[in-house]
Amino acid sequence: HGKVVAFINESMARHEKGSAFYLENISLSWAAVEDKLRAILEDHHVSSEAKEACVWGSLALGVRFAHRQSHLHRYRVEWLYYFAKLHKSVARALVSDMKLLKAQQDVERKEAASLLQLAHARLAEVQKERDLLRWRLLQA
After folding, report:
1. How many domains does the chain have?
2. What phi and psi, each to the nearest 5 degrees, are found at residue 28?
3. Which family does it belong to (predicted)?
4. How far, in whole angstroms, is CA 122 from its chain's centroid?
5. pLDDT tens track of the chain, all 140 residues?
6. For the chain, how many helices (H) and strands (E)?
7. Does the N-terminal or the C-terminal CB of the chain have fewer CB atoms within 10 Å?
């Protein structure tokens, strides 16, 4: 990679227009660089040496752009990997919490069922006592 970049830089530096083209367009998007290069290549007033230097300058910009895109891509992949790990960890924690809540809910449901059975038993006792008292009242 280093040798290729050095060769491109040497070829670009053979004409002052190459370095100027590179520096003028370093902050532009690749599409804008292509448009500017196309305009230069179609201009009949620009010498062939200057056109060639601009082509080398655009190639240098393309290599720079590709290198930057590679770094951005690597950063995005690392971020997505971290985010996926975090998501997996949160999912595990949620599963654990759900199991705990389900167990707690089961205990509460069983307690409520026991209390309901006890209330039914007490109600049955009270009803029997009521019926007995009613019978005694009718007997008297």
Report:
1. 1
2. -85, 165
3. Belongs to the TEX13 family.
4. 59
5. 789 999 998 898 888 899 999 999 999 999 999 999 999 999 999 999 999 999 999 999 999 999 999 999 999 999 999 999 999 999 999 999 999 999 999 999 999 999 999 999 999 999 999 999 999 999 98
6. 4, 0
7. C
- 19, 91, 123 from 85: Cα distances, Å: 45, 10, 56
**Looking at this protein, which amino acid is placed at residue 122?**
R
Task: Quote the domain boundaries for residue 39.
Answer: 2-139
Reported pTM: 0.61
- Helix H, strand E, coil C: the string for 74-130 is HHHHHHHHHHHHHHHHHHHHHHHHHHHHHHHHHHHHHHHHHHHHHHHHHHHHHHHHH
Whole-angstrom distance, CA of residue 59 vs CA of residue 55:
6
